[in-house]
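Q: What residues go here?
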């Protein structure tokens, strides 16, 4: 498997972990119903193209996010590759119960390795997304995290709207810092900081991180940048410069958040891998193969591929073919 960073005389590269959120964050916002076999096809192709951490779906209320119904079928049908971590998002104890029943039903081949829980930096977003304030969501999540840890399941955390909230405007970064700390203190191994609206730029991302880092170790943070204003790659690089070593990305730039009107998908996986080429960082994933995966899923969804790099690679391939 080729790695996106090529070796140079510069020596050892700093490994960056990429969490591929396309099958969950990407697909959850799609309007058309996506059959489970397409979701499975996407996850399997991502794994074969070198994605090493894949968020495969979510166990949320199908009334709130219909597109994620059927996650149980998806995770029990996918080809779970050794060396790849598969996670699902859960909002509450009911979601965790679904995960635990699946694990109990498949003791020899657990379909899921870990879960992710989520809250927000503002009450307005938390209520829109999960029907409870941030304080109430943290109480609920503390129970979920403890139960998961008791069963030996690792838990990742998300904080949404770390820069701007679509309902209450500019976010107080101290709130991001404190909510992040609560998630880490309750046992999340890592917290992913979500610029849900994609309004951040490298300056605001750096400012936000400097406040969050007052109370949280950088090695337990991840960056999750939506690309609404085209800043996803720049913000990812700013996060790496601040010491973050895990980035969430979405193949083909799929997605958006159902509770962040107008926000586009996460920064495209292909764009981040291209930005890391020949840099001080290395990340897993075969860029050429991932470009194919991005076009494969975009075609199935009848949508444009949002990755600038994928489009440029396709254009280069067409030029090369024309020369033959
Ligand atoms: C949290 C709730 C459930 C509260 O929703 P609620 O309506 O307050 O919950 P409830 O307990 O009153 O239950 C309502 C119904 O949902 C069912 N239900 C309840 N829980 C579950 C469950 N786990 N799985 C399946 N069904 C569930 C429950 O059984 C009941 O069914 P009924 O009796 O009416 O038939 C709801 O608000 C919800 O599901 N929200 C999820 C919203 C969501 O998925 N948002 C997108 C993910 S977060 C995100 O994208 C941001 C992130 C992470 O990517 C980072 C970033 O970019 O910012």
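A:
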């Amino acid at each position: 498997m080729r790695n996106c960073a090529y070796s140079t005389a510069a020596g050892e590269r700093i490994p960056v972990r990429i969490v591929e959120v396309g099958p969950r964050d990407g697909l959850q916002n799609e309007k058309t119903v996506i059959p489970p076999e397409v979701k499975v096809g996407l996850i399997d192709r991502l794994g074969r193209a070198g994605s090493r951490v894949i968020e495969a779906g979510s166990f949320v209320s199908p009334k709130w996010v219909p597109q994620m119904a059927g996650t149980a079928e998806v995770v029990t049908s996918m080809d779970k590759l050794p060396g790849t971590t598969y996670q699902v998002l859960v909002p509450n104890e009911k979601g965790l119960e679904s995960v635990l029943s699946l694990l109990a039903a498949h003791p020899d081949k657990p379909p899921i390795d870990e879960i992710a829980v989520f809250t927000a930096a503002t009450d307005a977003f938390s209520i829109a997304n999960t029907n409870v304030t941030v304080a109430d969501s943290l109480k609920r999540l503390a129970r979920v995290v403890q139960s998961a840890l008791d069963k030996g399941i690792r838990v990742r955390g998300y904080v949404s709207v770390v820069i701007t909230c679509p309902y209450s405007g500019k976010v107080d970064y101290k709130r991001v810092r404190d909510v992040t700390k609560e998630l880490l203190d309750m046992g999340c191994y890592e917290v992913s900081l979500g610029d849900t609206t994609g309004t951040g730029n490298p300056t605001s991302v750096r400012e936000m991180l400097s406040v969050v880092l007052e109370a949280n170790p950088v090695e337990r943070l991840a960056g999750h940048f939506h690309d609404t204003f085209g800043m996803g790659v720049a913000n990812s690089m700013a996060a790496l410069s601040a010491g973050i070593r895990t980035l969430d990305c979405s193949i083909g730039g799929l997605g958006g958040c159902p509770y962040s009107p107008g926000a586009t998908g996460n920064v495209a996986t292909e764009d981040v891998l291209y930005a890391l080429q020949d840099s001080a960082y290395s990340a897993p994933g075969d860029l050429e193969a991932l470009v194919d995966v991005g076009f494969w899923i975009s075609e199935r969804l009848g949508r444009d591929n949002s990755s600038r790099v994928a489009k440029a690679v396709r254009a280069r391939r067409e030029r090369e073919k024309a020369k033959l």
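A: Context that may help when evaluating the design: Confidence is low (pLDDT under 50) at residues 1-9. Residues 25, 28, 58-61, 63-65, 91-92, 94-95, 118, 129-131, 158, 160, 194, 196, 224, 257-258 surround 3-hydroxy-3-methylglutaryl-coenzyme A (CB under 6 Å).
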